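Support case: tryptophanyl-5'AMP complex. Customer-provided input:
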Amino acid sequence: MNKKVMLTGVRPSGNLTLGNYLGAIKNFVDKQEDYISYIFIADLHAITSPKKPQALQEAIYNCVAMYLACGVDPTKTMVFKQSDVLEHGTLGFIMTFQTKMGELSRMTQFKYKSMQQTKEGVNTGLFVYPTLMVADILLYNTSIVPVGKDQQQHVELTRDLAERFNKRYGNTFVMPDVYIAPVGNKILNLQNPLEKMNKSDNSNNKGTIFLMDDIETVKKKIMQAKTDTLSCVHFDEENQPGISNLMSILSKITNESFESIENRYKGKGYGEFKKEVCEVVSTLLTNIQQRFHKFNNKTLLDSILADGAKRAQPTAQETLQRAKLALGLQS
Ligand code: TYM
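Agent response - structure generated as follows:
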């Protein structure tokens, strides 16, 4: 049977978090052998907010080394940088021209990120960010896109635009499906469990676990995580968001069901439960960090990225060609 295509990407904007790993990268790694797999560094997406060039370079290398440390296998998966495959930019431009202002204004991530700024000051990159994502996905005939819950709407937009394009210009793009894992699709900030865990937060990063945090810091963050006064390890996202978040983290790493965790902690306090979460997360991160140091070698990373782009580009080129033919840009 012909393998289907799986693709995902991460913005290299700062250090990757436990949310990135559990919400997207782990799901990708677990399935990478079952698909024709692509994972890329969304470096063009990263420039929607200005950065020092050196810092962006470091973040890109950091991100590739982290993919490898998390288990992405470049012999099974094409690992590349978005900006190395020029077709992303061209198809992104084409798809922007197929999109209505209303469709982009409805994107919750745009609404959230542009909230603090005046309308005139909002970067147009932030506005058209999703249409580049549409191109990223469509270029490779992708069937499945593993992402966290926050990116679901962007994949749905991809489906809408692909469908409209196919209807208007003839069958050109494969319809992708989003894959949102049932557990861990939205890891929350440990200090404010009403917000998503982000690469930066308002609590001096006490609410965010970075994959490269030192282990003692990780333990402190987990032991100080906000919970509630109910004193019952129970999965209830509405009334016990902090405890439910820690249960999601534990369950996603160990595969233990919520019910089984609840049974083990009947009548026991939060302290003991948090200690187990510390142990499990520490073991995971120690492992990832050891592997990170092994892979953090620019010569190695450059060769993996060059090879990934070389293998990815022909499919991107074919799809762009198809789109140009369909539009009448080429005969
Ligand atoms: P980014 O870099 O914000 O996040 C990378 C992936 O991590 C997931 N994620 C989370 N999952 C669970 N809990 C969290 N707290 C959490 N934080 C982040 C995100 O959902 C995402 O899957 N636009 C994308 C990158 C991108 C992309 C694409 C992804 C560009 N083109 C095409 C898939 C397909 C982004 O900014 O993700």
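The first strand starts at residue 5 and ends at 10.

Case will auto-close in a few days if no follow-up is received.
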